[in-house]
Amino acid sequence: MSGTLNKVMLIGHLGDDVKVTYFEGGGAIGRFPLATNDSYTNRQTGERVTNTEWHNIVVRNKGAEICEKYLSKGDKVYVEGRLRNRQWQGEDGVTRYTTEVHVNDFTFLSNKNEGQGSSMQGPSQSSYNNNAPQRAQQPSQSQPQSTPQSNSFVQDDDDDLPF
């Protein structure tokens, strides 16, 4: 295979609210931390072990505005994008490095309608694709909304396999 691939797909919970920076030309960049968990049962002790990884997420322009409006700390989201490494000089003169996920597609997985009237239409299953002509797709009330557990990409947390 002669080509290369830089693709990241994550399902996790926001560790903080989305922070958006707006620019003069109308552009925007949103940033937030995303936590993913890996759980397994230790075969020797029988104890449940959970490891948490933190990811720096970057969303641009209209996607940043949508995330700022609908996402908050603790919400579950699916993001898809590319890994980017970045370096900068700190105030102390030390060169620092970070790895970020630059998002081009995301889907909200948190159910914002729980405990609210059925007439409320929230972004619980909204999707965004940076490359698609239609920017945001809100589910209509006539379409049945699936729960995150019914999606094929959601991992069952009751597995005791380490992968």
TrEMBL record:
Keywords: DNA damage, DNA recombination, DNA repair, DNA replication, DNA-binding. Pfam families: SSB. The keyword DNA-binding applies. PROSITE patterns: SSB (PS50935). It comes from the Bacteria. Gene3D superfamilies: Nucleic acid-binding proteins. GO terms for molecular function: single-stranded DNA binding. Plays an important role in DNA replication, recombination and repair. Binds to ssDNA and to an array of partner proteins to recruit them to their sites of action during DNA metabolism. This is Single-stranded DNA-binding protein.
